[in-house]
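Exam prep: given the inputs below (a chain plus pyridoxal-5'-phosphate), describe the expected output before reading on.
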Amino acid sequence: MTVSPTARLPTLAVHADGDLRATAEVVAPIGVSTTFSYAQGDIKASNYGVDQHYHYARIGTPATAKAEAVLGALTEGHAVIYGSGLTAAFSVLVEHRPRKIALGEAYFGVRNVVEQYRRLVPNVQVVGIDCAYDGVDMVWLESPVNPSGEVRDIRSYALRAHAAGAILVVDATLAPPPLSYPFRQGADVVVHSATKYLGGHSDLLAGVVVARSARVADSLREARAVLGTGSGSLETWLLLRSLRTLAVRVRQQSQTAARLVALVESYRRSAVATSCHVPSAQQLALGRHIAAVRHASLQLCAAGCSFIQAQHPDGFGAVFSVTFATSEQARFVAQRLRLHRFATSIGGVESLVDWRYGWDATSEPGLLRVSVGLEAFDDLAADWAQALRALDEHERKAGAKL
Ligand SMILES: *Cc1c(COP(=O)(O)O)cnc(C)c1O
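Solution:
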């Protein structure tokens, strides 16, 4: 590496692929070729920079090598890129062939992938993540959890998994580096939907598996070359481009989200009457319809929450949820928010709000998932205030008609 391996994350994001540079261009060129000329007389010899040889895009491309070098440096493992987050998840299952999976709360698409795997491999059992681990050979944990943004204790699941002889897979899509490093808490494999924060601009679909072991990563790459499950050349280039700014984007999104969570939660609390507090009309208008706000920063834990700080030394994820009493109220607010676009997905530079029940029948009907983008906090705060006031007005009018 032309950059010291002890360099900090923002530096690695810009320079970790320095050794793979083969041209004078400072920015990696967009390469769309699916095939590469053999070096003269030897189809195995380098034909691209130093020690690099490429034949055919299904097997590997210069952009994939660069993006994997950067991702591996940032995530502290060996990265393998796929065409989507769910292809990455499926590839982990096929690689490890678990017979009994302990599955925690997980994005509905991941649960579908596990179902797909079960259909293909007979007699696979799936149990809850807090069940006994006898016979369990893979534990699949999502942290932070989509859609609540709450954090789970990776270290405690790693200890339990390893004691049972199982591997721990962590889907860390909602907290990419520099917000979390699951290998430090004992994860064996980390999965990200790169469509979210790693891509960061809602303009590419990709996924990544990061293995602690180089051997596992090589085996994943071999299977990827056979199947062609990698990401397309333009998407891979966009991903590499986005990784350069990962640290500043994600830190800013994390900080804005923490302030927005505190604000919306303060609206909810101020609307609750107690023996010491009589809510004003203004406080009731803003907060009386909010049933719950969930995020790592508000999380209560039975056994203490010190693991949350330990897992997130640099801040929490930028996804949180706001629950209303009814699905109608949730959808009203989603449509009234102006800067938060009403659309699915997370992790982009634009704030998004999604009504998860529309996708996932196991979600609460009144829940909105919020993905905080890079807009100024004051503008996002004003957006929430106007949407909540509009809801209150709407509810008052509806009440008056009855
Ligand atoms: C979006 C998401 C995925 C799936 O990724 P795709 O890139 O959409 O295939 C997996 N896990 C989590 C937590 C996600 O949010």
